[in-house]
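Design a sequence for this backbone.
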C-alpha cells in the first residue's frame, strides 16, 4: 500500500526543478536590482559631468574638485554593479542578454573616462583657464594653453576612443531604462569628447593662428539664414581681422556689393557644378552654397585677395545665430537705427529690418554694421568665459567653419567639426546629410521649418538607410500683402509668399541610391549626382504659405547605424529623430 509520497527519483526531480526555478528567480531579481542601481549611478555620472563642465566654465576650481570625485565614485559603482559573474552570465541569455552587455560596456567606458580623462583634466584646469582660453578683451595669452597640449592630447585620445566604443553599443536592442541610461551616457561621452577635442585642437593651432610666429590676416564671413545656403545662409558681411602676438584687431569691412559678379567663374568641383551650376564661382554671396568648406574657404579668400589685395591666412564663416549667442554674452549692441539684445537681434536682422529699411542696399549696409557691432563687442568683452561659451554653443550646432591657408593647420581643422569638411564614416558609424539652398531670391527662410528622421535596417535582404525630410512654409496666408518685396523676392515666376528651395539629401559613404519619394509618390524630377564618396539627390521644391512636403530617400549599403545627421544650420534647429524603416 502506498504512503502517498512520490518515489525518491521523482521527488529529486521535483526538488531540483524547484531549486533551479528559485535560483533563477533570485538571480533575476539580483541582476534587475543591480541594473536599476547601475542606471542610477550612470545618471549620477551624467549629472556630475554636467556640473563639472559648469564649474570649469566658471573657473570655480573648488567646486570642480568636489564634483570630480563623485564622477569617479558613480562610475566605479556602475562598473562594479555590472561586472559580477551572475551579471555576466545573464549576458548569454537569448533575447535579453544584450541589455546586460550594453549596460556593462557603457559602465566600463564611464569608469575609464573618470580615471583616464576627468582626473587629468582637473589638474590642467588648475593651471589653464579652460573656459576663457587666456582671452582678455582682444588679446589672448596662449602660452599656458600651449604648455598643456600634451596632457590635453592624452585626455582627448581617451575620450575619442571612449566615444567610438560608446557609439558601437546598440542601445536600440536594450529595454527601458537600460536603453535610456546607455543613450544618456553616450550623449555625455560625445559632448565631453567634442569639448576636450576642441580645447586640445586650440592648444595646437592657436599659438600660430593668433600670430605667435608671424602676423596673420583672417576673413570673417557672416551669413544670413533668412536666405539659406548649404553652410548657413547667403554671404552678407565680410570682415578682415589682423592677429599678431595674440592681439586681434578689426582692419576692414565689406559687403557683397563690393564684389561684382565675375565674368569668368572660378574653378569649382564637379559636385558643386552639378548641384548649383557655376554661381558659387561667380557671385560671392553664393560661395556658401558649397557644402564642403575645404572648397568654399579658399574661394572666399581668393575673392577678397582679388578685390582688396591683402593675403588671407584663413577664413571663418559664421551665421546670424552666432550673433545671437555672442550678444547674449556681450549685452545690447547698436547698429543703424536699431538696438538689439539676444532676444531681438535675429528678428531684427532676418525679418523686421526689411520693413523698416526697404532699400536693399541700405538693409545690406545695416547687416554689415550689425556684424561689426557684434565683433567689436565680443573683442572688447571683459567676460571671456561667456564669449568662449557662446562660440562653443555655436560650434556644437555647426554654425562655425574655419579654413586655414597653412597646410598643417588645415589638416587639423579638416579633421575636426570646425573644418566644415564632408563627414567621414568609420567606427563611430555612418553619416548622412540634408542641405537646404534657397531659390526664392528673397528672405523667406525666416518663415520655414524642417524636420529630419532617419532609419536603418534591412529591406529585402540588404542593408538600407532612409532619410526623411519634412519641409514647411510657415509664412502667413496674406504674405503677399504683409511682407515687403525684399522678403518675398519680388515676384517674377514665384508668387509672393511662396518659397522655392533646393533640398538635397546624401547617404552614407559607398551607399547606393535606391529610391526618392515625395509625399508618397516617386519623385521623377529628382536630380542625382555624387558628393565626394556619397550619392546625393536634390529636389526643387515650391511651397505656398502653409504648405508642407515630405521627401523620403532610401539608400542601399552596409551602414549599421546613423551616428550623425549633418544639415544646413537654420534659424531654428530642425527636429531630428530616428524612426522605423519603411520597405514598401
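Sequence:
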Amino acid at each position: 500500500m502506498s504512503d502517498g509520497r512520490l518515489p525518491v527519483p521523482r521527488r529529486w526531480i521535483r526538488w531540483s526543478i524547484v531549486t533551479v526555478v528559485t535560483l533563477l528567480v533570485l538571480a533575476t531579481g539580483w541582476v534587475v536590482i543591480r541594473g536599476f542601481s547601475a542606471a542610477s549611478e550612470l545618471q549620477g555620472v551624467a549629472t556630475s559631468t554636467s556640473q563639472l563642465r559648469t564649474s570649469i566654465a566658471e573657473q570655480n576650481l573648488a567646486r570642480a574638485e568636489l564634483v570630480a570625485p563623485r564622477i569617479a565614485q558613480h562610475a566605479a559603482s556602475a562598473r562594479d554593479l555590472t561586472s559580477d559573474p551572475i551579471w555576466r552570465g545573464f549576458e548569454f541569455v537569448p533575447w535579453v542578454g544584450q541589455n546586460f552587455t550594453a549596460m556593462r560596456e557603457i559602465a566600463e567606458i564611464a569608469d575609464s573616462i573618470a580615471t583616464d580623462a576627468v582626473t587629468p583634466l582637473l589638474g590642467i584646469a588648475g593651471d589653464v583657464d579652460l573656459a576663457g582660453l587666456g582671452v582678455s578683451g582682444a588679446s589672448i595669452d596662449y602660452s599656458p594653453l600651449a604648455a598643456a597640449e600634451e596632457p590635453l592630447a592624452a585626455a582627448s585620445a581617451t575620450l575619442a576612443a571612449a566615444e567610438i566604443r560608446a557609439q558601437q553599443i546598440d542601445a536600440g536592442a536594450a529595454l527601458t531604462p537600460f536603453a535610456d541610461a546607455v543613450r544618456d551616457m553616450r550623449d555625455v561621452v560625445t559632448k565631453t569628447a567634442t569639448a576636450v577635442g576642441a580645447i586640445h585642437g586650440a592648444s595646437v593651432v592657436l599659438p600660430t593662428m593668433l600670430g605667435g610666429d608671424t602676423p596673420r590676416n583672417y576673413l570673417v564671413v557672416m551669413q544670413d539664414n533668412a536666405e539659406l545656403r548649404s553652410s548657413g545662409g547667403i554671404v552678407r558681411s565680410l570682415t578682415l581681422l589682423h592677429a599678431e602676438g595674440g592681439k586681434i584687431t578689426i582692419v576692414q569691412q565689406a559687403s557683397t556689393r563690393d564684389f561684382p559678379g565675375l565674368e569668368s567663374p572660378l574653378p569649382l568641383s564637379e559636385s558643386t557644378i552639378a548641384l548649383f551650376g557655376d554661381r558659387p564661382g561667380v557671385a560671392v554671396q553664393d560661395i556658401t552654397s558649397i557644402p564642403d568648406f575645404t572648397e568654399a574657404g579658399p574661394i572666399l579668400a581668393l575673392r577678397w585677395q582679388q578685390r582688396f589685395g591683402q593675403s588671407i591666412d584663413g577664413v571663418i564663416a559664421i551665421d546670424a545665430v552666432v550673433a545671437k549667442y555672442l550678444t547674449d554674452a556681450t549685452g545690447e549692441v547698436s547698429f543703424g537705427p536699431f538696438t538689439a539684445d539676444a532676444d531681438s537681434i535675429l528678428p531684427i536682422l532676418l525679418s523686421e529690418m526689411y520693413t523698416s529699411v526697404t532699400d536693399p542696399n541700405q538693409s545690406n549696409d545695416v547687416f554689415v554694421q550689425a556684424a561689426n557691432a557684434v565683433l567689436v563687442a565680443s573683442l572688447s568683452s571683459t567676460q571671456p568665459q561667456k564669449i568662449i561659451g557662446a562660440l562653443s554653443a555655436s560650434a556644437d550646432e555647426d554654425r562655425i567653419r574655419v579654413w586655414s591657408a597653412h597646410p598643417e593647420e588645415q589638416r587639423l581643422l579638416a579633421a575636426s567639426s570646425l573644418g566644415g569638411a564632408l563627414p567621414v564614416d568609420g567606427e563611430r558609424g555612418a553619416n548622412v546629410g540634408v542641405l537646404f539652398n534657397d531659390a526664392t531670391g528673397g528672405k523667406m527662410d525666416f518663415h520655414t521649418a524642417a524636420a529630419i528622421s532617419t532609419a536603418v535596417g534591412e529591406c529585402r535582404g540588404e542593408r538600407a538607410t532612409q532619410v526623411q525630410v519634412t519641409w514647411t512654409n510657415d509664412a502667413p496666408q496674406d504674405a503677399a500683402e504683409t511682407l515687403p518685396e525684399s522678403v518675398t523676392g519680388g515676384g517674377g515666376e514665384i508668387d509672393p509668399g511662396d518659397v522655392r528651395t533646393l533640398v538635397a539629401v546624401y547617404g552614407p559613404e559607398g551607399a547606393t541610391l535606391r529610391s526618392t519619394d515625395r509625399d508618397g509618390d516617386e519623385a521623377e524630377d529628382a536630380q542625382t549626382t555624387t558628393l565626394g564618396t556619397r550619392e546625393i539627390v536634390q529636389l526643387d521644391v515650391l511651397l505656398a504659405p502653409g504648405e508642407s512636403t515630405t521627401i523620403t530617400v532610401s539608400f542601399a549599403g552596409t551602414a549599421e547605424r546613423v551616428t550623425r545627421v549633418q544639415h544646413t544650420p537654420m534659424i531654428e534647429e530642425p527636429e531630428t529623430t530616428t524612426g522605423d524603416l519603411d520597405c514598401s
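The chain is about 45% helix and 25% strand.
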